[in-house]
Amino acid sequence: MKIFKHVLLGLLFVSAGAFAQDAEKKEKQQGHTNQNKFKQLYDEFATPNMFRTGSGAPGPAYYQQQADYKMDIELDDDKARLYGYETITYTNNSPDELKYLWVQLDQNMRARDSKTPLINSSGIGPATTPSRLATTYLQERFDGGFNIQEVSDTNGKPLPHMINRTMMRVELPKAMKTGDKFSFNIKWWYNINDHVKDGGRSGYEYFEENDNRIYVMAQFYPRMAVYNDVEGWQNSQFWGRDEFALPFGNFDVNITVPADHILDGTGYLTNREEVFSKEMMKRYKKAQKSYDEPVLIVTQEEAEKAEKSKSKDKKTWKLSAQMVRDFGFATSRKFIWDMMAVKLDTKDVMAVSLYSKEGNPLWGDWSTKVVASTLKSYSRMTFDYPYHKAISAHAPMGMEYPMICYNFGRPNKDGTYSDRVKFGMMGVIIHEVGHNWFPMIVNSDERQWTWMDEGLNTFVQYVAEQDFGEWYPAALSPGQTKYPSRRGPAKNIVRYMGGNQDFIAPIMTKGLNTYQFGSNAYSKPATGLNILRETIMGRELFDYSFKEYANRWKFKHPTPEDFFRTMEDASAVDLDWFWRGWFYTTDYTDIGIKEVKKFAVTTNPTEEGKKLAERYNIDPSNLVYFVEEGNDGYDEALKAGEISDLPTVKEFVMDNFTPEQRKEMKSPKYFYQVTYEKPGGLVMPIIVEYTYADGTKKRETFPAQIWRLNDKEVSRAVASDKEIVSIQVDPDLETADVDTSNNAWPKEVKESEFDQFKNKIKN
Ligand SMILES: [Zn+2]
């Protein structure tokens, strides 16, 4: 019979291996054989190598490419067009030979023949606005793609190139070897989009009054793609959502705009004396020494005056930036401009705001102070802000570039604003300024891993928001003691994680391909890090490791493994189980109390106890017995007094311990067996609060590893000299438990939502 079974198994094995379609089945089987939540992440992680080490640090052979830009840009304000001529110098630091270069043409997402609109499903609802009807069905799509007029070498000789949608391949006259530099030119122009109507992270907002625009420009020039050890060329197309992967380099950019425009952007303004009036220079010098209040460089009165006419003259602003991954600028004659100095540990930097009168009084009161506060918080959590300024420019959306970001939040016409507008504006400024660290400096690949910049940044944003509320209590509203953070606290992610699994994807999914983008790529990773910091690792270990990650990878290109590995490497906390559950699955936390049994101790043998003694051939009078509440002898045993006075216990204690040791001994009277259940797939520590009959409380935390041998339920014996009257799991709601109805013993009878509703009606 046995032999027969083996033969059968052998047959099955052969036939399974013979068919390719069985691979999936096999994978499932393999998964089945090792579902352990504490299995190390060897299958999911790339193998460490000379470029990236097992510790999560850059390896001895780590390299990165460099792209330097010299650009002449001109804005045609009448036609809303941008013209550019750029020279890119590309340095190949890789060990590989390169035959061609890939350049990103993000504006082609707005080309007439763009495929972006075609990847979204669309339908017809009961009603729409006339303007939406017009843009969707009546008008030809806005043509905002690049017009590439020239791609040439330094002698002006055309270079063969091919455009595949948002990517352009430029053929090299001769393959680039390690250390080679190659310079080439691109001449281009495009129609700037109205980003209020057509959306986008770059573009203009049009103001009918006085026929003016505010331009916040980004992704406006052909940009080098990243080439590295993990991707080769990162040339995945820009569909509009996923952000960018860019190499570091130095920029020299001359931007010509109407002479009455105010402009600021990435880099040092190298011709300040040329573009500033004497009065502006005086104010600027004052701002460099003003640490508490911003100083206006251009006042509202001056901006309002400038709006009323249009200069026919031009002015060129010259900006120069070192070691940045991108370049952005904002320009308008509507701009009010203020600045304030910020003292960091190792240096002073400038906090800067650009906004129009529509942003006031909110922007004048708060934007620059929020920037300053953010620079301090992020510097503390990572490293001192390495650039010399951080600009917050007022726009209809939030988006980040090195040294400059665009932020929403506009008061009503009469200057009043709600809490939602105020904290929306403060939150977005903190967030976008924070992006200077992730991903502008700790330069992860945003197109591939949205969470590596959004999630990490949203986590530090939460810390920075709490700092801001503490440092600027005047920014809070009446009755508030803390900044009302939206993302970060564990309880705020419960609704998402406990929701319909059909609309949830693991964090390790490309942002473009996920539902509930904000919850997936911002809130969930940020909350996970917050749980690690507050509940699993503790602030000291977490902060040290997080800082180590930021410092290891500043001005470099980290991958997810580099983050996961560094957090473990610097803390001696094995977190594979946490990364697996929180980042690679859509499991949620649900831990509860299944049952609690109460016992008292006696020397009177119980029926069960006698059976045990018999089985092991022990004299029953040498044992102590636990009687469960509700059974014969329980009340008697509880009343019997000190447990150490029980004859058998006494004998053991007298014989084996010194009088000093005896004095130190505890004398528990109440015994409990608490069984915890885990309907949720995630493993988490069990945080328990016991409440005693005298009203006092005690907390105890069992590490997540308590689930390592049984993923469904575990029991713990508790001995206590005081009676426990109730037990609560996760009393501070710090594990994102999606169902708290099973968290208490005895079960709390909560009024259901329906009953609440019924009672409300009655009242
Ligand atoms: Zn962001």
TrEMBL record:
This protein's record includes keyword Signal: yes
Coiled coil: none
Signal sequence interval, chain numbering: 1-20
GO molecular function: metallopeptidase activity; zinc ion binding
Annotated InterPro entries: Peptidase_M1_dom, Peptidase_M4/M1_CTD_sf
Key words of the record: Signal
The Peptidase M1 membrane alanine aminopeptidase domain, residue ranges: 413-582
Protein name in the entry: Peptidase M1-like protein
Originating organism: Winogradskyella wandonensis
